[in-house]
Every structure is written in structure tokens, then in C-alpha cells.
């Protein structure tokens, strides 16, 4: 009984650490949202999330930030595929290893849009967004149509996904 209580306390404290640590978080970017990763604009804070909107006829919008389509000079698409190590460890701790191994072999794809544009002063700017899996295709297609720019693939993973 004593060993069981000590083990339960150990597992509970390890679980709390895993769940509170950002590297072990289960929740990622919502599949329909976007996140500003970085760039040269000072109007957006890195890590801010929202919806990247292409429904406006004249401008791309994210929160209060807007870029007229005719000011866009480059559209780039890249992917990053990574193992779900953090989620696997957290699941392994909670289930004592049962069911965690298959999760390690699955990949989580992250989709990135690189946008270069000229600001209101004519200065070249860049913004990089991570886009959720349910929003990536419509966002990229809409941007190509509205800007008249051809999408450039930034890596082989993105090129493969774009040619499907």
C-alpha cells in the first residue's frame, strides 16, 4: 500500500510537470487558425494567434494588421514535419506506456506561409505565419488568385504536398 501511494504521487507530480511544460503541451495551433511566427513588421507580436483572412477583396488581414494584395511581392510555402515526442511522453506517463508507441511514429505537419510585401512607405517587409491544417489550402489558393503571384515552394516536403 505504501509503495503504491508513493508511486501514485510520483506519477501525479510528473504528469503535472508534463502538462504545464510548453514542450509537452497536447494542444497546438487550432486547425483553422494561424499564428504569426516572425518577420519584420512591428505591428504583430510573435506567437499571436488569429484567423488569416483572405475574404476581403483588397487586403489580407490578421487581427488589426492588413496588407493590400497589390503590395505583395512574394508568396512562399514550407512545411516542417516533426515527431510527436512531447505528446508521446505525456501519454506514456499517464497510461504507463500503453498506447504511446504508435503516437511516436506519427508525424505532425506544420504549414508555413512566407509573405513579402511593400509597406505604405515602399519598404520591403516580411511576415511568416504558421497556418492550421484546415486553413492552409484555401488560404494559399486565395492568396495566389488575389495577388496574382505564383506560390514558391520552400522545401521538398511542401513541393510534394503541393503536387498531390
List the helices and strands and how they pair.
Blueprint: H1 2-20, E1 34-39, E2 49-50, E3 52-53, E4 59-62, E5 65-68, E6 72-83, H2 85-95, H3 101-104, E7 107-118, E8 124-131, H4 136-147, E9 151-153, H5 156-162
Parallel strand pairs: 6-9
Antiparallel strand pairs: 1-2, 1-8, 3-4, 4-5, 6-7, 7-8
Helix pairs in contact: 1-2
CATH fold field value of the domain at 28-83 and 106-162? PH-domain like
Tell me the Rg in angstroms: 20 Å
Q: What is the strand tally?
A: 9
What name goes with the CATH superfamily of the domain at 28-83 and 106-162? Pleckstrin-homology domain (PH domain)/Phosphotyrosine-binding domain (PTB)
Sequence stretches where pLDDT stays below 50 over 5 or more residues: 7-26, 83-91
Question: How helix-rich are the residues, as a percent range?
Answer: 25-40%
CATH class of the domain at 28-83 and 106-162: Mainly Beta
Strand portion: 25-35%
- Treating each run of at least 4 consecutive H or I residues as one helix, how many helices? 5
The biggest sheet amounts to: 6 strands, mixed
Average pLDDT rating = 78
Shape: globular
Secondary-structure element string: HEEEEEEHHEEHEH
Strand order of the largest sheet: 2-1-8-7-6-9
Q: How does CATH name the architecture of the domain at 28-83 and 106-162?
A: Roll
Q: Report the span from N to C terminus.
A: 57 Å
The chain-level structural class is alpha+beta
Amino acid at each position: 500500500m505504501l509503495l503504491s501511494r508513493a508511486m501514485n504521487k510520483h506519477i501525479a507530480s510528473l504528469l503535472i510537470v508534463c502538462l504545464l511544460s510548453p514542450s509537452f503541451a497536447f494542444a497546438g495551433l487550432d486547425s483553422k487558425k494561424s499564428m504569426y511566427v516572425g518577420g519584420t513588421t512591428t505591428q504583430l507580436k510573435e506567437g499571436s494567434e488569429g484567423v488569416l483572412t483572405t475574404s476581403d477583396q483588397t487586403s489580407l488581414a490578421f487581427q488589426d494588421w492588413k496588407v493590400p494584395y497589390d503590395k505583395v511581392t512574394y508568396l512562399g510555402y514550407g512545411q516542417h514535419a516533426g515527431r510527436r515526442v512531447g505528446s508521446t511522453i505525456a501519454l506514456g506517463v499517464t497510461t504507463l506506456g500503453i498506447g504511446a508507441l504508435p503516437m511516436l511514429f506519427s508525424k505532425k505537419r506544420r504549414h508555413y506561409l512566407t509573405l513579402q510585401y511593400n509597406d505604405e512607405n515602399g519598404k520591403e517587409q516580411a511576415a511568416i505565419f504558421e497556418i492550421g491544417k484546415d486553413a492552409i489550402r484555401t488560404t494559399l489558393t486565395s492568396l495566389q488568385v488575389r495577388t496574382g503571384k505564383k506560390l514558391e515552394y520552400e522545401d521538398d516536403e511542401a513541393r510534394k504536398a503541393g503536387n498531390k
